[in-house]
Design goal:
The complex is a heterodimer of chains A (415) and B (299). Chain A is an alpha+beta fold and 415 residues long. In chain A, the strands form four sheets. In chain A, strands 7, 8, 9, 11, 12, 13, 15 and 16 form an eight-stranded antiparallel beta sheet that branches. In chain A, strands 2-3-1-4-5-6 form a six-stranded mixed beta sheet, with helices on both faces. In chain A, a hairpin with a 4-residue loop joins strand 19 and strand 20. Chain A is globular. The mean pLDDT of chain A is 91. Chain B has 299 residues and is α/β, with parallel strands linked by helices. In chain B, helix 2 links the parallel strand 1 and strand 2. Chain B starts with 7 loop residues before the first helix and ends with a helix. The chains are: A alpha+beta (415), B alpha/beta (299). The interface between A and B is large, with 70 and 55 residues.
Chain lengths: 415, 299
């Protein structure tokens, strides 16, 4: 069974939590006791309907204020696949949460209130989905019940959004438009009888049919070594295995590989998944690899195929999103974590910071505040072997860690 | 039998997380309760480091109110896997005067075990505790990170969580801090059961139908034991039951069941109308029971 990871963005007012609640309700993913709990909570609040959004608003502060602050994870499954929804808040002050939710997703649901159309927040959400190279974007035009289920409303919003896709989107990205009324469930799991003019798939039908084959499967093979397995037992006296998760591409037994950074070549002797020996391993799989000869390999090193190219970077250009309360500026030193590899890094240049409202880069701004997105140049104490984010999202991303308080202060995309 | 219902991607993710723990921390331990989630963790740890034995000890916080079947199973599993077992007792914490036994008919040691755990973390100088909590269990858990940083008092601050991007895990901590790690965060109850079935894992017998003395209270079936404070009207009677989740005998409710085989248990779960933690009496105290306990350093 496969997994589809989805991120949602939108504000409370767009009915995002209601949409997710409806998806769970109509796929019968809510147990009776949970449903009774939210029915009771809805009554206490004086609602004359069951507020399905209460299913997802988790933390005490969020329930009090009626807003979604953090990323919540929601799970349901059909007979086809398992779904993981990273539900993130939509307001500008939660940009970092949206990026966090989006970083692990292959589908982005963007909500639009049919009465309001494409607003600034919509542009920001689509910008983030495109920055993170999310291939499938579903534009959920919600609250169609409050817009008379009018096809013209839907078509106008679609046209506005498509104009933005031309400017912000990327080649190979697929954008789907679905008219919805989440409160009543129209076009979420079941086709809407109120919108007979929409003959296309419902939201769930669309999600069920998306291909989830890893995007990075066709990229050059990358295997960062996480941990060295050395048993020192009689039975496995000479065993020396390299444990890790294949980030992109695939490796097969007998293949010639190169070790970075030593540039030594060797051959794959065996691939182990627990007691089972494998002929081949694909992106996203955790295995232990042994090589033909004893090589001095440790955590943070990387195996690649001899036939694939690589780039050794001692400095790099990146777009970053700042995620910490304390600001970031030129001259500051951090730990850069790229996969399991950690090196010291210094911001040498801030190229500019995005004006999240106009989506233009402001080259005069040089200091990153919480939620800022911008371009930087980093100088590294030791080389890393990263790819461009656009060609390999798994090996083209990194995080920055504060030297002193250890917080994860930024995420970066290699340019 | 149905095949391949378990999404293997979840196993690859959990193994990756366990290896990050081994690489980034000096003294990790697996919090072992004897329940199905921690049994799953043990298998994942075997897989992550094979052919090396599990490089972390199993830490069991023994409330003294366990089902005897759980303890029996724990000891068998330790022998089977060659893992190291460390046990710390809530009774000792009570005897030291650090916590007080609850009274009344709902008395349990569920809250008390937090202190025993925090003491064990200090005593053993643990920097990472690996737990089997899942985000689908409960609303506050749905927002917790895979690496969840705790301060010197074991407290969780939901507002100061580190963002986790692209699966990259930042385990850098200051002296005195420690990390709770949840490798099966993204698994659901059904994923765990399908994994147990596909991996042919052994689990304690109380997960299967058996005859037991129970009492009925608040619409739930409570296992009758010396630890449970009962009134004169609460007269125990025998029924065929099983347990869907395994905590203490004082805070885990039974379900009436004839399911003696794993396939039957899974079928029952599929058609159940009550969520897993619906049978956990400890969660019923208030709407925000779990979040409040986590802030105090609970698992």
């Amino acid at each position: 069974m496969d997994i589809l990871r989805i991120t949602t963005a939108g504000s409370v007012d767009d009915g995002k939590s209601t949409l997710i609640g409806r998806l769970l309700y109509d796929t019968r993913s809510i147990t009776r006791d949970k449903l009774e709990a939210i029915e009771a909570a809805s009554k206490r609040k004086g609602f004359d309907f069951t507020d399905l959004s209460l299913l997802t608003d988790g933390l005490i502060a969020e329930r009090e204020q009626g807003i979604t602050i953090d990323v919540a994870h929601i799970y349901f499954s059909t007979s086809t696949r398992k779904y993981i929804i990273a539900d993130s808040p939509g307001h500008v002050e939660y940009t970092r949460n949206m990026i966090t939710g989006a970083s692990n997703a292959s589908v982005s649901l963007i909500l639009i209130d049919a009465r309001k159309g494409v607003i600034e927040q919509t542009k920001r959400h689509f910008y983030i989905a495109s920055l993170l190279r999310i291939k499938h974007v579903v534009v959920c035009i919600n609250k169609m019940d409050l817009a008379g289920f009018d096809q013209k409303v839907f078509e106008n919003i679609k046209r506005d959004f498509e104009a933005m896709v031309v400017k912000v989107g990327f080649e190979g990205q697929e954008v789907k438009f679905i008219p919805l009324a989440a409160r009543e469930g129209d076009n979420i799991v079941f086709s809407s009888v109120k919108m007979p003019w929409y003959k296309d798939e419902t939201l769930l039908e669309f999600l069920e049919n998306i291909s989830v084959a890893a995007d990075n499967i066709n990229a050059p093979a990358r295997f960062p070594v996480q941990y060295v397995v050395r048993p020192h037992t009689d039975e496995f006296h000479d065993f020396r295995g390299y444990a890790g998760k294949v980030e992109s591409g695939s490796f097969a037994k007998g293949e010639e590989v190169m070790v970075l950074p030593s540039l030594r070549s060797s051959k794959i002797k065996s691939i182990h998944n627990y007691t089972e020996e494998k002929e081949e391993v694909l992106a996203k799989e955790s295995v232990v690899i042994t090589l033909d000869d004893e090589a001095d390999i440790s955590r943070g090193n990387m195996l690649i195929k001899c036939t694939d190219g690589f780039t050794q970077l001692t400095g790099l250009n990146a777009t970053i999103c700042w995620m910490d309360e304390s600001p970031g500026a030129e001259g500051k030193i951090f730990f850069l974590q790229h996969g399991p590899n950690r090196v010291k890094a210094k911001i040498t240049t801030v190229g500019g910071i995005l004006d999240i409202h106009s989506l233009e880069t402001n080259t005069d701004k040089k200091v990153f505040q919480l939620n800022d997105i911008g371009d930087i140049v980093l100088k590294l104490a030791k080389p890393v072997f990263a790819d461009l984010y656009v060609s390999n999202t798994a090996n083209g991303s990194f995080i920055l860690i504060d030297e002193f308080n250890n917080n994860t202060v930024a995420v970066g995309f290699v340019r | 039998m149905k095949k391949n219902l378990f999404p293997r991607e979840l196993e690859h993710e959990a193994i990756y997380i366990l290896r990050e723990v081994a690489a980034q921390f000096e003294k990790p331990a697996i919090l072992f309760s004897g329940g199905k989630d921690s049994i799953t963790l043990v298998r994942l740890a075997q897989k992550a480091f094979h052919p090396v034995r599990i490089p972390f000890p199993l830490l069991h916080i023994d409330t003294g109110h366990n089902f005897p079947e759980t303890i029996e199973f724990r000891d068998w599993l330790v022998k089977e896997t060659g893992a190291e077992l460390i046990v710390r007792y809530v009774q000792d914490t009570i005897d030291q005067g650090k916590v007080q036994e609850e009274t009344g008919k709902y008395a349990s040691r569920n809250v008390l075990q937090t202190q025993t755990l925090l003491d064990a973390i200090n005593e053993l100088k643990l920097d990472a505790c690996i737990g089997g909590a899942r985000r689908d269990e409960e609303k506050a858990r749905a927002k917790e990170r895979v690496f969840s940083i705790r301060d010197a008092f074991g407290q969780w601050d939901s507002k100061k969580q580190r963002p986790e991007l692209f699966g990259m895990l930042n385990g850098k901590i200051a002296v005195g801090e420690n990390v709770r790690v949840f490798p099966i965060s993204n698994w659901t109850e059904l994923d765990v059961w399908n994994y147990i079935r596909e991996e042919k894992l052994d689990i304690p017998s109380i997960y299967f139908s058996h005859e037991r003395e129970i009492i009925e209270r608040d619409g739930l079936y409570w296992p009758y034991s010396d630890y449970l404070n009962t009134s004169a009207e609460e007269i125990p009677f025998k029924k065929k039951v099983r347990f869907r989740t395994v905590g203490d005998m004082t805070c885990t409710a039974a379900v009436l069941s004839e399911a003696g085989m794993l396939d039957q248990v899974i079928d029952e779960i599929l058609s159940a109308t009550i969520s897993e933690r619906g049978a956990r009496i400890d969660d019923k105290r208030s709407e925000a029971a779990m979040e409040s306990r986590k802030k105090e350093g609970y698992f």
